[in-house]
Design brief:
The protein has 557 residues and is α/β, with parallel strands linked by helices. It is built from 17 helices and 28 strands. The longest helix has 17 residues.
Amino acid sequence: MARFTVTGFLADVWQKKVYPASITVEDGIIRGIDPVPDGALVTEQFILPGFVDSHVHIESSMLIPAAFARLAVVHGTVATVSDPHEIANVCGIQGVEFMISNGRTTPFKFNFGAPSCVPATIFETAGASIDVQQVESLLQRREIKYLTEMMNFPGVLHQDPVVMAKIAAAQRVGKPIDGHAPGLRGEQAKQYIDAGISTDHECFTKAEALDKLHHGMKILIREGSAAKNFEALIDLLHDYPTQIMFCSDDKHPDSLVAGHIDQLCARAAAKGVDLFKILQAACVNPVLHYSLEVGLLRVGDPADFILVQDIEHFRVLATYIDGIEVTDPEISRQWQLSSGDDSFPTPRSVNNFDCKPVTAANLAAPYDGQETVPVIEALDGQLITNRLEIPADLLLNTQSNTLTANVQEDILKIVVVNRYQPAKPAVAFIRNFGLKTGALASSVAHDSHNIVAVGTDDESLVHAINQVIECRGGVSCVKGGAGAESLVIPLPVAGLMSDEDGYAVAAAYTDIDAMAKALGSPLTAPFMTLSFMALLVIPHLKLSDLGLFDGDQFKFV
């Protein structure tokens, strides 16, 4: 590899100062960092460590790792801490192997974890399971950096033997354990942390985050396509710079085209956060916490760094990984959109789909005589939902004695269809999706990834769901019933990801998102919000393929 030098104003995260410097790179390693003498010509650019997304599900971008990397490097991201539990819930270990293998086709530094909760709960049908022995085996591998988010926090609190065995397996090999405990406070939070859980990305209030910080936990400030906690938590970075990281968790392709961790840095700078505290969260803390093989602008480090126009807006001019300028279109064009190892499957062969088309009769909701109906209330920018009790009269069709959507009251029907085996769909009701007509459907439905759909009428729901089934995975939007205008994005890789170019997928997603909003949805990201309406481990009320679920009491309604 050629020897080269880069000059600019170096943001030295170790000395916490910015000074004109020249960096010498050879064989992908930083061989020298030399201050530029006073009066010497220096390129008007800033040299920073590369950004790290400290918690992300690559699958939620609808892109396979190689395509995700192409979009991320443009924004200065050189590495991710990636939880592959979405594909693991569909395809098990085979899915994890695919993500690792495909990631190797690029210079980008993907750092995958061993999924801790597959399936996420026993209250839904998943496509696979990963047991304690498989977790132990994964954790032995060098490329597996940690145990992924322990969503079963009740299992930790109650010392569930399987949960504790997975935690112990990570502790034996000295790898960190990610957390997931939305709303957990006080003594229970302390108990969860004392069990060995080191991070949480689910805090949605400053008070909750402070509670966990005081017990020694590291807090990830999340700003994804659906969950947005930056505004609530960013002030913590002033006082806890060594305990804060930035992450996206779930990022749709159009959002990734627009920006990544660079956006959080710019927003933090606009709020007056010190540059080196920003870089601590965006670059340094993830590398140290997860022991990542990512350079931090030291002599002898891998040459992972970025050039930015300024340290206010963080506009990225170039990204280097192991001394390769990966923002060079000629470089990224060579990245394969296929498996990097012939021993593992190609993208389109990774799937798990055995589902027959549905009919309107399958979606009927017979009235049981109760005075009120439990209704999910979706919240824009949050994964949590509220539980409402709505008078049954608002939904009752007296002619058929069934409950139906009430568009005027913004109470729509929500359906979850088991995509792994023939089964009766689960049906409930939801508020705040705002559709005036039509339906949305998706096979991206955390965490088991059955088909989830929301619609104003059964005919539209059937149309939207069956489009997803026909593609063996995808997202669809229909303007009305059968034969009406519709859009669909096929996701043939595990029903979660496309194997097309990332920019093309982002453009298609922009179109389908616009269509959903044209149908009346006021949500910032309707499809991302939809994908979390089956996530049982987030309170308060959700729908699995087995029924309506109370996330506080952890039981069916």
